Amino acid sequence: MKYFIIYFLLCFSILESYSQSVSVLKSRFTNYLNFNGSLNSLVSFSENSVTITNNGKPEFTIYENELPFFEKLFTSQKTEQCVAIYNWKKNTHLSKKQLDSLSQIKSEVVIPILGLRDGLKNRKIAIDPGHFGGNMEVGRVEQKYLYFVPNEANKLKDTIQFNEGYLTYLTAEVLKQKLEEQGAKVFITRPKQNLTAFQITYDDWISKKKKHTLDSLLKIGTITQQRHSALMKMTKQKMFWEFFRDYELMERARIINEFKPDITVIIHYNVDEKNTDWKNPSDKNFTMTFIGGGMTADNFSKTVNKIHFLRLLITNQLNESEKLSSLTVNQFNTEMKIAIAKKNDADYLRDNCLKTASNGVFCRNLALCRTINSPLVYGECLYQDNLKECVALNKSDFEIYNLKMPKRIYEAANCYYNAINEYFKNK
Are strands 339-340 and 286-291 parallel, antiparallel or unpaired? Predict the structure, then answer.
């Protein structure tokens, strides 16, 4: 596979096609980003600018003529560099001379040879199989597993036993193989079933990396000595919930962004939130997808989250994410015969999400939806604790690419594959 490696300048000659306006940004703010008016006092729009305020005072302003520069800045540079420019610029209206000077920021970009990006060929696609349970023990640590024993009430004939990390890994592996067959360049965050995003198991991280990690965070002031001591004494399960879960999600976002994908696919399997006793399957089954947005005022306590907000505000990533996610959820619905969730079908959809114009696509302020720098789909294909689904997912009745799996897994992977094909058809 041949590529040209080039360095480009973030200058206006490259950005002539940029056609965003403050009115477009205001619409995106309302439709995707502002959760129930939570950001009304923190973000304001004028005819030719957008301003982030802090304690009622303007903190950072982008003017309409600066949008092309900042669109490229936020999509091509590391967050730390964006934070530095944010803190330096503040509310200054940059002149053309200043913009030209700032445009000397260089970024390495890999561009496929012109004319070879037909269909999936040379597309860069990141896949993140959610969780990392390679066995039931780790699944219990993550609390992402099913274990149902047959009884008179649940109508099961056999014991149901699997974990979500197993399902997502197999789905990702099938999807990766199908995409690569069509010439796509695919990156997967955990290429083996029991690995975390750090490319080692959670047990290995605990025994080999935990102390070094916490010591480093203490040294740079990210955690206090009191917090360090408390974390060092925690059990493996408590450590996961108190620290590792969020820390590992940051690593997933980091390695995905380093890959610079055209799109990102985040694979999960859902459960019925009302099925709280976990002794019997549910009769409910819905499919849905998440994208970024739905941000709240507490996000603005950190400058890094303001950078994520601005990237989502001034680029087309949310619009493109909605397109990809809509295609995906429709595949789950038509091919796997799963009902598309409405806003009132789950408390978290009603209370924590913004409904987009596309059925089954919701803005949800999840860490990966906020921090991944590409259009994305965060798929919740089905309810794995549904009676029919859990029976199907407990089988190993299909084989492809030398992998044995439930046939339902292959069907889910194929839905993602079809949606991605459709998304890139006219691009």
Answer: parallel
Q: 260 by DSSP, 3-state: which?
A: coil
Strand partners, 76: none
Nearest CA among 284, 266, 265, 287 for reference residue 275: 284
Cα distance between residue 281 and residue 387, in whole Å: 5
* Rounded Cα gap, residues 252 and 199, in angstroms: 11
Q: DSSP secondary structure string, 250-278?
A: HHHHHHHHHH--SEEEEEEEE--TT--S-
Contact 331, 416 (CB under 8 A): yes
Tokens of 378: 């965060």
CB 103 within 8 Å of CB 10: yes
CA distance 156 to 158: 6
Q: Read off the amino acid at residue 277.
A: D
pLDDT at 302 over 90: yes
**Of residues 268, 267, 287, 265, the one with CA closest to residue 386:** 287
Backbone angles phi and psi of 289, in degrees to 5: -135, 155
The rounded distance, in Å, linking the Cα atoms of 372 and 366 is 10
Contact 344, 350 (CB under 8 A): yes
Residue 78 corresponds to which tokens in the numbers above? 């590391």
Q: With beta carbons less than 8 A apart as the criterion, state whether 357 and 321 touch.
A: no
CA distances 10 to 66, 100, 104, 171, 330, Å, are 12, 8, 7, 38, 38
Helix axes 164-181, 407-424, angle to 10 degrees: 50
Do the Cβ atoms of 385 and 272 come closer than 8 Å?
Answer: yes
pLDDT of 193 reads 86
Residue 248 structure tokens: 């590992």
Nearest Cα to Cα of residue 254 among 379, 371, 376 = 371
Alpha-carbon separation of residue 410 from 4, 392, 396 (angstroms):
35, 12, 11
Model confidence pLDDT, tens digit, residues 324-366: 999 999 999 999 999 999 999 999 999 999 999 999 999 999 9
CA–CA dist 262, 3 (Å, integer):
15
For residue 115, pLDDT beyond 50: no
- Identify the H or E element spanning 15: none
The candidate with the shortest Cα–Cα distance to 322, out of 370, 289, 365, is 289
Give, to the nearest 10 degrees, the angle between helix 67-76 and helix 303-314. Answer: 120
pLDDT tens digits, residue range 278-288?
A: 788 999 999 99
